[in-house]
Amino acid sequence: MSKMHQARTLPLLLVLGAATLLGGWFSLTTGPVHLSIVDAIQQPASLQGQVFWELRWPRTASAFVTGALLGVAGAMMQVLLRNPLADPYILGVSGGASVGALVAILAGAGALLLQSFAFGGALFSTLLVFSLAHGKGNWDTTRLLLTGVVLAAGWGAIISLLLALSPGVQVQGMLFWLMGDLSAARTPLPGSLVLAGVGVSALLLAPSLNLLAGGELRAAALGVETGRLRTTIYVLASLATATAVTQAGNIGFVGLIAPHLLRLAGARDHRALIPGVVLLGGTLLLVADGLSRLLVAPRQLPVGVLTALLGVPLFLLLLYRSQRSPHA
Questions:
Q1: What is the CATH number of the domain that holds 98?
Q2: Distance from CA of residue 205 to its chain's centroid?
Q3: How many domains are contained in the chain?
Q4: How would you class 148 by CB atoms within 10 Å of its CB: exposed for 0-12, middle for 13-18, buried for 19 or more?
Q5: pLDDT at 245
Q6: How far apart are CA 118 and CA 189, in angstroms?
Q7: Is the CB of residue 69 less than 8 Å from the CB of residue 241?
């Protein structure tokens, strides 16, 4: 990364880091129980301490990890498909996870088994898309996209069938999970490990991602093994998406909006974009999760509803700007 580019992106990353800290504070202190973080840490056996360590901290950490995973997955999907409108859910991974989770809910499974079913469904969907798109020869982005869209439609039909056949007492919980829900978050450790692995791998691939974003022929001419790179991007993005969906259900627009905002801010080099989307994606979901507990307190809204309500107008604004300025 050149010194000039570092001078432009370092302040941006520092601002994003400060925003993440503020978002974390907002998420930790928002809820039906008034909470002092200092008192909760000093007195872990008190009511505030129990609320902090057993509820607020796991939920806040899971929110950040989920948003960061979606941000990284979105940035890589947009390079893979060479389409700035691509998002982490476009290839049907979330549909497979949703079917697995709904089956677990119907079976009366606990939270851990539900997450296992959701991750298994996402993994199955990933392998199915890749095998169908690959066929007997090399796959291209168009074939991959079409396969993913068709499979997503099939998962959607199965989800509708499961909802129609489910007992009424279970439908509300199923719908809540489908709309995105962090209330069942218990430990951010598995997602954190996946985020660390995917984030480091994406940073190591950043120079190649820059070349691939400029065109596959150009990247191949400069020595990039584009076939292997596309497979690696697909696996990493799918793993990040599957983990995010397993932790929190379907949460839209975070993986679409975060890379867009950073590119508009000048972070087009993936060596700056990858850490940027980790911070921004996590911050967006931290704020949305805090608002989901604040707006209609003491009731809670599904966090996916908040991200959609915030993401739709923001995305339309970005689309309007891109139409007016070809370089936006």
A1: 1.10.3470.10
A2: 19
A3: 1
A4: buried
A5: 87
A6: 17
A7: yes
